[in-house]
């Protein structure tokens, strides 16, 4: 019965949505302190290649590979972040854009390690690894009425869902605290924030690094969901796509990033004919948004109004 | 061999310089990095291909067509994506950047749909004509490119320093408010700047088509990034810096390809971006500190 | 002596914004810094809080040389300021604005914030309580959930003072706090500043509203074209020939213009 509902195709789309949500949050976090990073695709690539290479060549457990991928991306974030954060927003955007391209060019050219533009194949797939692990304990998906590939995709979705929830929980809690207040005060007025005693360099590096870590995590997960990666997965277009998730959904609230990633991943899947024109539509959407609603679909005012709506309904009841 | 590479490097460098000038003009006046500049350049190149190869127009007419089309694109860019954001309360300084990114992916993918992803050949009537001086070969195309670039740079420099409109542009770049108090029609000057910058991009597009015999929708992105690298090298908003930076990048790329690993050719620009931003954010020729913008 | 300005000069591209200025402020004083527009008053604030470093000279705070200290460190040491052109965090509630002011007197990091440790919860409670007290002090408690940008002009000025007070300063720098206020608002501002003084906080104030300055300040320094013109009690300043000339000369110019 469960087997009829669980369609691997839907599960796969769901897993893309979840990875894209992580990516959108990786742009959202630095933006919450006023920093635009165009290097998210690069950090994502670093996470993906690190984890893929480690697991292929050294046969280490996936979870350690994925964590290593995220950490290497985070460390790269610190290395790039500290010097470039002396720069203001626009310069940071360009520096990160340059970084992303350098990373991609290295992936293409370091053929002995990365297999060049063909990319890496045979990356251990997360769901299958878990299935094999479970089988070691005598578990069979048929025991809960599932086919093997249904189980594989279901496990992936559940793990991603868990990670997304944990990330959102982390970001929301951080936001409603002394750290979050510092980040948003820097975003609103850097000079005033500093004269209130906030060490702006520290907080900017912090949020930038968190973004790099999250992008690296998403990249590593991507590698182990897809099973193959190539440099074109981490091009400038990917960076722009991630940026659009966040900017479209709403760059001031985390719900915006979640909504943007979900909506913009779903639409091309549901409306197939749009898929070909996706980037043209993205371009138009960006132009119109900046002119009409630069903060994106969701902002604090809209959220407050929605909350108010819920409350008044509760009142009637 | 060395001399030939030097000629190749200077040819490439002078094209880069023209692309960078377009960036620098817009940044100088508006304080905005026009992420769509590379794609406007690409459109200029396609106009060149279409007019010469398909319609069979002479080259000089192709240049005019390209200037007109990219000039109009520049006007639309200013009217539709930049002006609405200017002076609006609560608009982040990142908004114009994001908005021009929108224009860039729109233009790139439109050309992709119209012309296909592959390379289009660019035939100019004198592509094969060359001059032999001693042991080195110089193609006529290279001389034409170099001459046009130099003329453009000299023309721009004279226009900026001698004409009324050029002076108004410089005043606007210096300080928008002061310029408008002094009676400069800043709205007109800004529009003019974006149009001129875009038209220069269009000219550079044809020149690149002539130099490499091919154009593709993806060329805008890599050229745009190189233009950015150059103005960062030369100092944002610095006209002479853009010219020198263009030559430096052109020469270093040519020599890397000739004597090193060609795969990393495109990485030079980006590595340059990162190092300069980290070590000397105001650029080699810049004196203004980058912070605060 | 709380603050000592020692032979401070500041040069902007060949123009002397401040030239060899020296004065010092005693503990518990309300000290006025006045002078015509462009005399270098705000520049002095920017030097004290190290938005710029002085070209020459020293700034001594509680016996410590703070001339080259980073802005945020200076706030930690106990100097906090307001701005002439109000720089609140516009899309943040009044309460949160004040809580940001308490940043350097609290220390929750990422870990304790995310896991809401006991000490973090206690700290947040204390910050909130203190912010509410300060909002009450400046008469804005009822607007604690209003975004700063939606407050009236005079309220924004008072909120900025509350935000600065949240950093527990021993020296408060006020840059034209009465600008744009009507008579009634100015009166309540006077009471507020006196209250701040009674809390043991030293105040350095830039102000153009002369009756307010004369009523409020214990001592005053007059700047003119970047140089110190006079120093003394309000009575001394009011009868100082050079000061009268500087101000009268200014007024004549304005009339001509």
Q: Which descriptors would you attach to this protein?
A:
heterotrimer, A: 317 residues, ABC transporter involved in vitamin B12 uptake, BtuC, 16 helices, B: mainly alpha, two-stranded antiparallel ribbon, 11 helices
Question: If you had to describe this structure to a student in words, what would you say it looks like?
Answer:
The complex is a heterotrimer of chains A (317), B (293) and C (257). Chain A has 317 residues and is mainly α. Chain A has one domain (2-316): ABC transporter involved in vitamin B12 uptake, BtuC (Orthogonal Bundle). Helices cover 77% and strands 0% of the residues of chain A. Chain A has 16 helices and no strands. Chain A has helices at 2-5, 8-31, 40-58, 62-84, 89-109, 111-114, 126-135, 148-175, 178-188, 190-195, 200-226, 236-249, 254-270, 272-275, 278-292, 300-316. In chain A, helix 2 runs parallel beside helix 8, helix 2 runs antiparallel to helix 13 and helix 3 (40-58) runs parallel beside helix 5 (89-109). The longest helix of chain A has 28 residues, at 148-175. Chain A is globular and about 60 Å long. Mean pLDDT of chain A is 87; it is low at 313-317. By secondary structure, chain B is mainly α. Chain B has one domain (13-219). In chain B, the strands form two sheets. A two-stranded antiparallel sheet of chain B has the order 1-4. In chain B, helix 1 packs antiparallel against helix 10, helix 2 packs across helix 8 (186-212) and helix 5 crosses helix 6. Chain B is globular and about 60 Å long. Chain B starts with a helix and ends in a 14-residue tail after the last helix. Chain C is α/β, with parallel strands linked by helices and 257 residues long. Chain C is 41% helix and 23% strand. In chain C, strands 6-7-8-3-9-10 form a six-stranded mixed β-sheet, with helices on both faces. Chain C has a four-stranded antiparallel β-sheet with strand order 2-1-4-5, with helices on one face. The relative contact order of chain C is 0.17. The chains are: A mainly alpha (317), B mainly alpha (293), C alpha/beta (257). The A-B interface holds A 34, 36, 80, 83-84, 86-91, 93-95, 97-99, 101-102, 105-106, 108-109, 236-237, 240, 243, 247, 276-277, 279-280, 282-287, 289-291, 294 and B 33, 80-81, 84-85, 91-99, 101-110, 113, 221, 225, 228-229, 232, 261, 263-264, 266-267, 269-271, 273-274, 277-278, 281, 290-293. Chain A: Keywords: Cell membrane, Membrane, Transmembrane, Transmembrane helix. Chain A: InterPro entries: ABC_transp_permease (IPR001851), LivM-like (IPR043428). Chain A: It comes from Lysinibacillus telephonicus.
């Amino acid at each position: 019965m469960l087997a009829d509902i669980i369609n691997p195709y839907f599960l796969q789309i769901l897993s893309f949505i979840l990875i894209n949500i992580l990516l959108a949050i990786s742009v959202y976090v630095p933006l919450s302190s006023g920093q635009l990073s165009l290097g998210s695709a690069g950090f994502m690539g670093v996470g993906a290649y690190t984890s893929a290479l480690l697991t292929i060549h050294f046969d280490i457990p996936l979870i350690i590979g994925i964590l290593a991928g995220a950490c290497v991306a985070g460390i790269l974030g610190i290395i790039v972040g500290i010097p470039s954060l002396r720069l203001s927003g626009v310069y940071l955007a360009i520096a990160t854009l340059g970084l992303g391209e350098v990373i991609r060019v290295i992936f293409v050219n370091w053929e002995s390690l990365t297999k060049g533009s063909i990319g890496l194949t045979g990356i251990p797939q997360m769901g299958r690894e878990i299935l094999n692990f479970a089988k070691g304990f005598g578990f069979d998906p048929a025991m809960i009425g599932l086919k093997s590939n249904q189980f594989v995709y279901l496990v992936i979705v559940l793990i991603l869902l868990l990670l997304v929830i944990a990330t959102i929980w982390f970001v929301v809690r951080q936001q409603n605290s002394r750290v979050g207040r510092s980040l948003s005060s820097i975003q609103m007025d850097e000079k005033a924030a500093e004269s209130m005693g906030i060490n702006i360099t520290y907080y900017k590096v912090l949020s930038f690094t968190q973004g790099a870590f999250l992008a690296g995590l998403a990249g590593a997960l991507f590698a182990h969901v897809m099973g193959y990666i190539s440099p074109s997965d981490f091009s400038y277009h990917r960076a722009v796509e991630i940026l659009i998730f966040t900017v479209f959904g709403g760059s001031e609230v985390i719900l915006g990033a979640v909504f943007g990633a979900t909506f913009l991943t779903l639409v091309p899947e549901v409306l197939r004919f749009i898929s070909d024109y996706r980037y043209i539509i993205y371009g138009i959407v960006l132009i119109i948004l900046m002119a009409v609603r630069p903060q994106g679909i969701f902002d604090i005012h809209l959220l407050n109004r929605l909350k108010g709506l819920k409350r008044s309904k509760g009142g009637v009841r | 061999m060395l001399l030939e590479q030097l000629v190749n490097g200077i040819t490439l460098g002078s094209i880069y310089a023209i692309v960078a000038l377009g960036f620098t003009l817009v940044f100088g006046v508006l304080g905005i990095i026009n992420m769509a500049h590379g794609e406007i350049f690409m459109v200029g190149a396609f106009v060149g291909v279409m007019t010469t190869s398909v319609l069979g127009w002479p080259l000089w007419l192709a240049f005019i067509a390209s200037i007109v089309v990219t000039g109009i694109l520049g006007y639309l860019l200013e009217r539709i994506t930049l002006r609405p954001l200017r002076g609006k309360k609560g608009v982040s300084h990142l908004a114009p950047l994001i908005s021009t990114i929108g224009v860039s992916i729109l233009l790139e993918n439109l050309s992709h749909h119209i012309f296909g992803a592959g390379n289009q050949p660019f035939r100019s009537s004198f592509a094969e004509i060359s001059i032999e001086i001693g042991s080195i070969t110089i193609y006529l195309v290279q001389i034409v490119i170099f001459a046009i670039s130099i003329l453009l740079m000299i023309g721009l420099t004279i226009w900026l320093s001698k004409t009324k409109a050029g002076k108004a542009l410089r005043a606007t770049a210096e300080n928008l408010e002061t310029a408008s108090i002094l009676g400069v029609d800043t709205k007109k000057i800004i529009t003019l700047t974006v149009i001129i910058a875009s038209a220069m991009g269009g000219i550079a597009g044809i020149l690149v088509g002539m130099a490499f015999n091919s154009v593709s929708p993806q060329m805008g992105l890599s050229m745009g990034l190189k233009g950015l690298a150059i103005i960062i090298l030369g100092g944002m908003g610095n006209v002479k810096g853009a010219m020198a930076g263009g030559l430096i990048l052109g020469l270093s790329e040519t020599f890397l390809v000739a004597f090193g690993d060609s795969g990393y050719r495109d990485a030079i620009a980006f590595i340059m971006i990162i190092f300069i931003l980290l070590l000397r954010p105001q650029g080699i020729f810049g004196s203004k500190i980058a912070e605060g913008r | 002596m709380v603050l000592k300005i020692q032979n401070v000069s500041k040069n902007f591209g060949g123009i002397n914004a401040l030239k060899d200025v020296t004065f010092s402020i005693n503990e518990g004083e309300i000290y006025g810094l006045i002078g015509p527009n462009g005399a270098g008053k705000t520049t002095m604030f920017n030097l004290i809080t190290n938005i710029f470093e002085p070209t020459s000279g020293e700034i001594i705070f509680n016996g410590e040389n703070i001339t080259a200290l980073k802005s945020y460190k200076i706030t930690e040491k106990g100097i906090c300021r307001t701005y002439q052109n109000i720089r609140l965090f516009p899309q943040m509630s009044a309460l949160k604005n004040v809580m940001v002011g308490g940043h350097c007197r609290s220390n929750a990091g990422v870990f304790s914030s995310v896991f809401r440790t006991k000490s973090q919860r206690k700290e947040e409670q204390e910050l909130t309580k203190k912010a509410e007290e300060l909002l009450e002090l400046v008469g804005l408690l009822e607007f604690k959930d209003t975004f700063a940008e939606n407050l009236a002009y005079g309220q924004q000025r008072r909120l900025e003072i509350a935000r600065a007070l949240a950093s527990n300063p021993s020296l408060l720098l006020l840059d034209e706090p009465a600008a744009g206020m009507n008579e009634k608002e100015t009166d309540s501002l006077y009471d507020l500043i006196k209250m701040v003084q009674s809390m043991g906080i030293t105040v350095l104030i830039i102000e153009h509203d002369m009756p307010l300055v004369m009523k409020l300040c214990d001592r005053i320094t007059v700047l003119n074209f970047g140089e110190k013109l006079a120093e003394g009690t309000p009575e001394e300043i009011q009868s100082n020939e050079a000061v009268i000339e500087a101000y009268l000369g200014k007024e004549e110019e304005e009339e001509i213009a």
